[in-house]
Structures are given as structure tokens and as C-alpha cells.
Design goal:
alpha/beta; binds zinc ion; single chain; Arginase, Chain A; 38% helix; 10 helices; two-stranded antiparallel ribbon; 8-stranded parallel sheet
Length: 350
């Protein structure tokens, strides 16, 4: 990939980093929906569209155990080591480890960390880490839902060691990021905002879940009924998340960028499109520009229809490179989405 900056509409130069976890193929899950062909499709899409050469390559380096241990309990890493020695096993009915999974997960995490470093020292404005396995279901003590290491959570803690104290995590994967929510439940320094299908796996993410103690109000969930579309996601972002993010004034926005809310996705019932994802990326970019000089790192989570995933990642990257997408969603906001957002805003007094 050749290094090139894109010219923004306002004339400023935008550099967007891209990190790809080459070791992901070692996490060979066979016909499991979370399979190696997902990332190959993303890469093919970026090459075919010419986007690949507009991105600044960021070479991933495996995360150290020390940095992962800032989020995960030693017992979880000991379990991983044991399963690796056994030659692999299912950690829960959805989550498989094979020999090589652990190093793939640590390199995936390291790719997100390298992206954080690149935006922290302003080599790039924003960055995207195309990684697998995903991370947002992993709690401090438990691997679940295809996830071993919670990359975004580790990245948040790592960013804080680089002086980026206040973090906002935006999660638009169709599943609730229970692991991330749990890790920062009592933490006022990390705002967690999630849209997701509900009720759905993993069962958490109701709008009344707001955090506890010092972290009360720093968790914000907009659960969406099956059939929720671009307009519902944008409404949640504009009405429920924008005020929280702007009030939090993050030094960095981390994004759990899962694309399994796509209409073509086989695993879930939301009906988002590439245009919808472009609109979400535009909103995140705007918040990052307003709060933290554009610093945003996107980490891939779900997305199981390979072509839809590839097109959606490309749509996201085009926005980060400076394209301004359409701002009018097709279709109306569902009444149940409005009710949920209004109830949430009443509860938090906004
Ligand atoms: Zn998901």
C-alpha cells in the first residue's frame, strides 16, 4: 500500500491508517460463521475499489500479556494457555479455540493498539483495524460469543497510558457488547454507547442499563427491535449518543465496528445498509473532530455476509478519508425506537 493523504473538503489533509491482522488465518475456525474468509473479503474489497492504496499501512505487533492483563484476569489467560496445550476446544457453544487462536487474538489486539499509537502521535487522523477474532463480548474473566480478548477495552486502557484519558467507545455491532459494558460499568473515564438488536444475544443492553457508582450515566444503550434500519441507527446516534459524547469530551473515540446489522447478514434481524454505515461513520468523524482533533480508531467486530461486510467497511473508510455521505436516511424512524430513545433521555434528564 502506497502512502497518500486525501484532500478534505476544507482543504486539510486527512491520513487514515489501516491495520490488517495477517495472523488471523491461524485462528482457523473452518465453517464457523466467524471464519477467515471474512477478512479476505474485506481486503479484496479495498483492493478492488482502489481504497487500499489511499490508506496508511500500520503493521500490527502482538499485544503483550502485560497490556492485556490491564483488562483481563490472569485466570482467563491461564485458561487460554491450557486450552492451547490441549490442542483447542470450545470455550462455550459459540467460541472455539484452535492451536494458533491465541496468537491470532493477541495480534488482533496489537493491531488495534498500533492504530491507537498512530492517532495518539498524529501520524494519522483516524484508523481502521481489520481484525478477527472479534472482541466486544469478552469480559475481564470470560471468553464468549466468538471473542477471546476484548481488543477495544484493552485499547482504551492502553490509550490512557499514552495520556488519552477520556475515552468514548461507540459500538454499532448488531449484538450488545456486554464485555465492554461490564469492564467499564463503574468507570467514569470511559463512555460506552451501543446500538444493537434486542432482545437478542447476549441478552444485555436494555436502555435502563446506565452504569453504576462513578460510572453511572457513562453507559448508554439503545436497543432496537428486529427490523430496525438506517433511520433508527442514525436517530439513536443523533439523539441519544451525540449529547453524551460531546459532554464526555473524549480524547479518543474507539469504535466496535461490527457490520452484522446489515440487511444481508445471516445472523440477525436489523436491516442496515452501506449508506447507513457511512452515516454512522460521518457522525463519529464529526464528534471526533469536535472533541479530539479527529482521533478515532475503528476495530472490526462482527459481519458475516462477506460481500456486505466488504462493501460496508469500504463505505466507512471512504467517509474517514473525507467523503461526505448523504444525510437523509431512507424510511422513517420506527415509533418503538423513538419511544426507547425518549425514555432513555427522560431517565438521564436530557
Ligand atoms: Zn455481532
Amino acid at each position: 500500500m502506497r502512502q497518500r493523504a486525501s484532500l478534505r473538503h476544507n482543504g486539510s489533509v486527512e491520513r487514515v491508517g489501516f491495520s490488517y491482522n495477517r495472523d488471523h488465518v491461524e485462528h482457523d475456525t473452518g465453517e464457523h460463521p466467524e471464519q477467515a474468509a471474512r477478512l479476505e473479503a474485506v481486503l479484496r474489497g479495498l483492493r478492488a475499489s482502489g481504497l487500499a492504496e489511499q490508506l496508511v499501512p500500520i503493521e500490527p505487533v502482538a499485544a503483550s500479556r502485560d497490556v492485556v492483563l490491564r483488562v483481563h484476569r490472569p485466570a482467563l489467560l491461564e485458561l487460554f494457555d491450557k486450552v492451547e496445550r490441549m490442542g483447542g476446544a470450545y470455550l462455550d457453544p459459540d467460541t472455539v479455540m484452535v492451536p494458533g487462536s491465541l496468537s491470532a487474538a493477541f495480534t488482533a489486539c496489537g493491531a488495534v493498539l498500533r492504530c491507537v499509537e498512530a492517532v495518539a502521535d498524529e501520524r494519522v487522523t483516524s484508523a481502521f483495524a481489520a481484525v478477527r477474532p472479534p472482541g466486544h463480548h469478552a469480559t475481564s474473566q470470560r471468553a464468549m460469543g466468538f471473542c477471546l480478548v476484548n481488543h477495544v477495552a484493552v485499547a482504551a486502557r492502553y490509550a490512557q497510558t499514552l495520556g488519552l484519558e477520556r475515552i468514548a467507545i461507540v459500538d454499532f455491532d448488531v449484538h450488545h457488547g456486554n464485555g465492554t459494558q461490564d469492564i467499564f460499568w463503574r468507570d467514569a473515564s470511559v463512555l460506552y454507547c451501543s446500538t444493537h438488536q434486542y432482545p437478542f444475544y447476549p441478552g444485555t443492553g436494555g436502555w435502563r442499563e446506565l452504569g453504576e457508582g462513578a460510572g453511572y450515566g457513562k453507559t448508554r444503550n439503545v436497543p432496537l427491535a428486529s427490523g430496525g434500519a438506517d433511520a433508527d441507527l442514525w436517530f439513536a446516534f443523533d439523539r441519544a449518543f451525540a449529547p453524551a459524547v460531546l459532554e464526555h469530551r473524549p480524547d479518543l473515540i474507539l469504535v466496535s465496528a461490527g457490520y452484522d446489522a446489515h440487511v444481508a447478514d445471516p445472523l440477525a434481524g436489523l436491516v442496515a445498509t452501506e449508506a447507513g454505515y457511512a452515516g454512522l461513520a460521518a457522525r463519529i468523524r464529526r464528534w471526533a473532530e469536535e472533541c479530539c482533533r479527529g482521533r478515532a480508531v475503528f476495530a472490526l467486530e462482527g459481519g458475516y455476509h462477506h460481500e456486505a461486510l466488504a462493501r460496508s467497511v469500504s463505505a466507512t473508510l471512504r467517509v474517514l478519508l473525507g467523503e461526505t455521505p448523504a444525510d437523509e436516511p431512507r424510511g422513517a424512524v420506527r415509533p418503538d425506537t423513538r419511544e426507547t430513545v425518549e425514555a432513555l433521555l427522560r431517565l438521564v434528564g436530557q
